[in-house]
Amino acid sequence: MQSIIHFSRVSRLLATFLVGLLHSVHTVAAQQGRPAWERVEAIQTLLNGAVPRPEAVRLDLPSVTQDGSSVLVTAEIDSPMTPDNHVEELYLFALGNPSPELAEIRFTPLAGRASVSTRIRLDRSQTVVALARTSGGDWLSGSRDVRVTVSGCLSRDATYQADDVMQTRVRVPPRFKAGQASDIRTLINHPMETGLRKDAAGQPIPEQIIELFQARLDDAPVLTVRLHRAIAANPYLVFHMAPEQSGELTLSWEEDTGETTVTTAEIRVD
Amino acid sequence: MIKDAMNRRQSLKLMGAAGLGTMLSASGLPVFAGGASAGRVVIVGGGFGGATAAKYLKRLSPSLDVTLVEPQPRYITCPFTNLYLGGIRTFETLWHDFTELREKYGVRVVHELAEDVDVDRRRLKLAGGEDVSWDRLLLSPGIDLRWGALEGYDEAAAEKAPHAWKPGEQSRLLRRQLEAMEDGGTFILVAPDNPFRCPPGPYERVSMVANYFKNHKPHSKILILDAKDGFSKQGLFMEGWREHYGDMIEWVGRSNDGGVMRVDADTLEVETEFGTVHKAAVLNVVPPQKAGFIADRAGVIDASGWAPIHARSFESQLVEGIYVIGDATQAAPMPKSGFVASTQAKVTARAIIADLGGDTPPEPSWVNTCYSLIAPEWGISIAGVYEVHDGLIREVPGSGGVSPMEADRSFRRKEAEYARAWYAAITQDVWGTRFAF
Amino acid sequence: MRLAQMIKWGASMQQSRKRYIIPVGLLVAGLCLSAGVMIAGMTLAEPENEYEAVIGEAAPEGATPFEQRIQMIAMSCAACHGTDGRLQTAIPLLAAQPAAVMRAQLLAFKQDQMPDATVMPRLAKGYTDEELEALADYFSALSRKANPGSAL
Ligand SMILES: Cc1cc2nc3c(=O)[nH]c(=O)nc-3n(C[C@H](O)[C@H](O)[C@H](O)COP(=O)(O)OP(=O)(O)OC[C@H]3O[C@@H](n4cnc5c(N)ncnc54)[C@H](O)[C@@H]3O)c2cc1C
Q1: Residue B191 Cα, ligand 1 centroid: separation in angstroms?
Q2: What tens digit of pLDDT does each residue of B118-168 get?
């Protein structure tokens, strides 16, 4: 539960004094030769004056995408993921969206690999940025430009089947090797209503999203994700886990209404 | 690579020698006067892109020396293979040859596979051992399939679970399987993620198979397992499917576990991302794709597997003097269609001539219309006009779009008729094929 | 011969400056007349020995950039209307059709004023009025049949 507290603290900081303070503290000199995105408010706030090591987060996403409503992105950092040297936090931003925040991911060493994949919404052509903080307090970054086009033969209707909302799916490997990371994929059916759309009568449709995902192996947290509204409908996650012993994996998805769905999967370790 | 300055100077000199500089042909297309060659253009691929380019290069500039390299003595179109699969068109009407290009337009047609590209020496190596040198190289090699991208799906597997996404023996195999299938079986089509050749193609295919089932095997089912959460002209397809085929066709998108991860061609089973196994009576796998291999040999593709091009000319962004058109390119938002390959060929033919002659080509304009048949007399379309804006291709604002939803029967019938007329027109324009009317 | 064709082009370019007002009803009748009926199960025709001309017809020397662009756009029309717009199917023939009618039709497509239209309104919106008018003139100035004499 600690992780949740942590996230809300970050958001609170985001909204309070740091914004105003850091703007003035940041000297022009420190910005010279730095990528322009470091001056984006949400990112400045997060970095709090730290200078991230560039290209240390590998961002994998298509350079051109024909469907901005669902773009697969993978962020990965080389890290031993040991208790005293691991990636603790990963932040994803899409700078050209109405709000830049995509997701905040908190890893534990149990994840075994600092890597996550998800599907995001991109409003237009823009830069996607990843920032990561290690347990040692270092900041790492990565960025990729993405061009969003709508292909002539591809224009697709906004069809979302709402009959199975909150249904989840999970896939775990049949067996893990002790201490070795293998991937887990999961998905929940949910429209991720952004709050930016209007209904047929022209009334705004209120925001309704999945905002929190947690994975635990028995009682030990593996990964926590705070999702924002630019995560694509039917939130999808691929992450890793390196268990030492068998146990029960619990995945919980929490909607901003408080409604939560929990799924479990048996984990077998050889 | 540095452009061959000698070459350009030389061709300019040749034009000067003819005394007239650039002239315009009777078609209003500028041509080089005089008998001397205005340059040598080598084209790889005799499909929609390559064959169109060969014809229009010669129409624009009859004195150009144009060589077309294409291994097949006759080209079989992908467009309308779905009609063949549905049993409403014969295979022979999909064949086109190169007689017109050779005899009327004076294109040198070499029926061989281009094996490799020597960029520095500007030579194309043919499988037969011959070397062809170029002033400009134009690649329109279409697609290759990414064997192995789907676990279990390789060339051997395709002999049992055909893709039929490059036409020929594969199309016949799939047709035979559909004919042999017992009534009550399930036809599964595995559809890929974007980008891929012909975005509406898989959905037209199941429509045509459904039409065949409806008439011959009415208890059969069709399941589309899709790596995407939406597809081209989706609303129109689904409306048409309900109208004509009731609930025969089921579409499962990625978020409903439609993404296939593994194929077992022996048991005709596929396994999805979240572990559901589906068994087919006939299994059609359309795997992920990439540009034809020769584009890789030429060094014009990037990590995406497709060729990035300069929007205005379709000259490669990676190698000067090599142009790429058609399915092999990254030309989004233009789709990978035969219509597009052909319109790109025309604009690029003009650009190559300008490049060789040192003049400025007109501001590009491309067009696309993709028809799909849902039933023999039920057609739908998507169209678009494209331009360059800020150095990138975009659809002209306000233009383009799909057929209206809920249109009446006569509208759909008309579009079906136009689909057939389009096929006759484009194959006449590209290969000189003549259909009787 | 080339001179004669140039004169023809010139004539049609002049025409292009006049405005024609044609009732939509007439246009539709014109369209229907020019639309041929397609045989459903298409068959291959016997190969013809006589091909259309290698090169189209009628254009001035030293075409302006605008004219060159029109010629380039016209090439793409061939994908549905046949080379030089000379194919007559369910999709109408363009070559040698009256310029005034085609101009009015193209503008009507663009303004969603053509009843029973399918794809053309979506396409016509991709061009300026001037381009549509010039395209009409361009196709109108071509002969119905290709001129075999102009072949290589
Ligand atoms: C089922 C289906 C239906 C379709 N329906 C439509 C439709 O209705 N309308 C539409 O517009 N499009 C349609 N398409 C898409 C269309 O077929 C392609 O977009 C088009 O063929 C692309 O043209 P191209 O020139 O890029 O490649 P291709 O037409 O594939 O031509 C490539 C040619 O290059 C040759 N080649 C490749 N490598 C070499 C080499 N190394 N050396 C020599 N030659 C080589 C090949 O033999 C081939 O002939 C459909 C596709 C499919 C699969």
Answers
A1: 18
A2: 999 999 999 999 999 999 999 999 999 999 999 999 999 999 999 999 989
User: What pLDDT sits at residue B404?
Assistant: 96
Element (H, E) at A116: strand A114-120
CB atoms within 10 A of CB B413: 15
How far away, in angstroms, is B41 Cα from ligand 1 center?
A: 20
Last residue of a domain, one of B254, B287, B320: B287
In short, whether B432's Cβ falls inside 6 Å of ligand 1 is: no
- Chain A contact set for B403 (CB, 8 A): none
CATH code: domain of residue B61: 3.50.50.60
Going from the N-terminus, what domains does chain C have, and what CATH number goes with each? 3-39 (no CATH), 50-140 (1.10.760.10)
Contact (CB<8Å) B194/A66: yes
Q: Rounded to 10 degrees, what is the CA torsion of B311, C94, B66, C65? A: -50
A217 to chain B nearest CA, in Å?
Answer: 20
Q: Is the CB of B39 under 6 A from ligand 1?
A: no
- Domain containing B356 equals 2-144+290-431
> pLDDT digits over A63-82, tens only?
888 888 899 999 999 999 99
Residues of C in contact with B86 (CB under 8 A): none
ipTM: 0.90
pTM: 0.87
Where in B332-426 does DSSP place strands (E)?
366-375, 378-389, 392-395, 401-402
**In order of start, what are the domains of chain A with their CATH numbers?**
34-267 (2.60.40.10)
